Prior knowledge:
The structure holds two protein chains of two kinds.
Chain A: E1 2-6, H1 14-20, E2 26-29, E3 32-35, H2 44-48, E4 54-58, E5 72-75, E6 78-79, E7 82-83, H3 86-101, E8 105-111, H4 115-121, E9 128-133, H5 142-156, E10 160-164, H6 167-179, E11 184-185, E12 190-193, E13 199-205, E14 210-215, E15 222-226, E16 243-247, E17 258-265, E18 277-281, H7 291-301, E19 304-307, H8 309-313, E20 334-338, H9 344-347, E21 356-360, H10 367-370, E22 373-376, H11 379-395
Parallel strand pairs in A: 5-8, 5-10, 8-9, 9-16, 10-15, 11-15, 18-19, 18-20, 20-21, 21-22
Antiparallel strand pairs in A: 1-4, 2-3, 6-7, 12-13, 13-14
Helix pairs in contact in A: 5-6, 7-11
Chain B: E1 2-6, E2 9-11, E3 17-18, E4 25-26, E5 32-34, H1 36-52, E6 55-61, H2 67-76, E7 80-84, H3 94-108, E8 113-117, H4 128-136, E9 140-150, E10 154-160, E11 164-171, E12 174-178, H5 190-195, E13 202-204, E14 225-230, E15 239-241, H6 245-258
Parallel strand pairs in B: 1-6, 1-8, 6-7, 7-13, 8-12, 9-12
Antiparallel strand pairs in B: 2-5, 3-4, 9-10, 10-11
Amino acid sequence: MAKLIVNQEKITDIDALIKICPFGAMENKNGILEINASCRMCKLCVRRGPEGAVVYVEDEVVKVDKSKWKGIAVYVDHVEGDIHPVTFELIGKARELADKVNHPVYCLFMGHDIGHRAEELLHYGVDEVFVYDNEMLKDFRIEPYTAVFEDFVNRVKPSVILVGATTIGRSLAPRVAARFKTGLTADCTVLDIKENTDLVQIRPAFGGNIMAQIVTPNNRPQMATVRYKVMTAPERKAEASGRIIHCSIEENRLKSNINVLSVTKKQKEHGISEAEIIVAAGRGIKSEKDMAMIYELADVLGAEVACTRPLIEAGWLDSKRQIGLSGRTVRPKLIITCGISGAVQFTAGMNNSEYIIAINKDEKAPIFKVAHYGIVGDIYEIIPGLIENIKRVKEA
Amino acid sequence: MEILVCIKQVPGTTKVEVDPVTGVLKRDGVDSKMNPYDLYAIETALRIREQRGGRVSVITMGPPQASVVIKEAYMMGVDDGILLSDRRFAGSDVLATSYTLSQGIKKVSNPDLIICGKQTTDGDTAQVGPEIAEYLGIPHVANVRKILEIKDSSIVVEMDMPETVEIAEIKYPCLITVEKDIFQPRLPSFKKKLETRDREVKMFTLQDFEDRDEKSYGLNGSPTKVERIFPPEVNNDRRMLKGNPEELRNKITVKLKELRFI
């Protein structure tokens, strides 16, 4: 049990102490300092206040036996057996973490008619793939999928579980975390592991303005989700290694109050998430007709066009083309940002791109902090000529 | 029909900085608003009520000041508001927050349908909805982009999946999280503001819950711990070029050629 205890007699200036709290959680009640429900337990009052005025006390808690939890598990994200590529990226990361603490790498693969697909996972450095193949797992429905996950965790007792932050993963992982009353850190961008098997999870917080390093020190399993294209997938090995373990579960645990009536494939569209080259436009574009030069630049480079939020709000592009925290995360080989100042909400969605060229008038623009190649100049003076240049090179 | 919407008060801005010396957040605690995604959830609830009748309640957890967002919900047409506020809820992570809300929900009502926004703008995790559903032992579906039919004992919704559009029927009680743009949220009305001026916000503390063990809440009930916070790193391997437009575009061309993009 951790709590803050106020020692009134050690407070010299009650109002000065109140001012230390950034959340307005301290009140002066007739000369008595009280902490109210606004408290975030940031402990600033403990550190900055007069010595001993506010103290943080922690009781001894029952420690989890970490040695009983072994292995780094990856949830195999798929739709009707088609494995989502984030799975391979996570296997790569899992292998790296596992090698540091000498743990095995596991995969959990559930669905219907997936047996033959499990083989593929053995080419990426997995020790054991646990396959739950059942007709009732054909469509993703939360209760049976959670039940299978629970069965897997109880059987294998993995120390760490990594789940892709896909539509399914973001729905399933929290459900499993709550069932085991354990921690789940969403959208991690960096993962590492300590000697004591504590997973070090780093994720952007407050719209990407700060980074937070999070651990789950006294609960197992430790769970994290990672977005697609944040980690790097390992090379596929020609030789398969590891083994497949077929598991079954009682059918009465697979009941659901959800009935999937239909699943319709969406029109395959050229999305920005998969694009290798992206030309991104921002508020530097003065009017909608000027988007023509952006499209032409994208055209000569074989790129997809993306943009920042203001252009979506102006209705110039479809919201699927928005990069950033409220849009999509992209990781192309090349991105050229045109007239984008680079607010963190935007850069958080693209700063893992392999190469970033930024064109912007304002040399103080934050985009230049993430760009590999920063061009200080007016897009209207640069892009049309650049298009001509590229055409000439291609013709030569 | 009983509908409950989970809402949250979030900072009005995400412009926060880390004090490089103390490593503490520099944040103005005053400026706050309702999580924008919650407006879509409230609107969805109100539309369902218009069709089927019943009551719409909102629930939030936070400091006493968070009652502001409940008042705002009243101005949109919400019937009831519940605020869970206790110093012992301080420092809650996703799990403790979900648990607290589920305890609050069990205390006050027995909703047929719980609606959450897709995520918050401060935490950005999109995890609280599914975790509440787990604690209540009810099914949930996320990414709902359309309500197709509201039946007596179930709801038919359309979900936006990356490659597919899925239609599913879920029996009550259940929880859904809705995409933005499911409906255009209505603006708070001045008339309703006057009407609901004296409407109370029900307040509950830990003492009111079924589980009164302090260890389940706040910092103590949170398995995750923030070890440190720091500013995002900047890319040091970078070059900046200035000059006349012709020079600059030629340099980009050379670079693109060097990187084998053309």
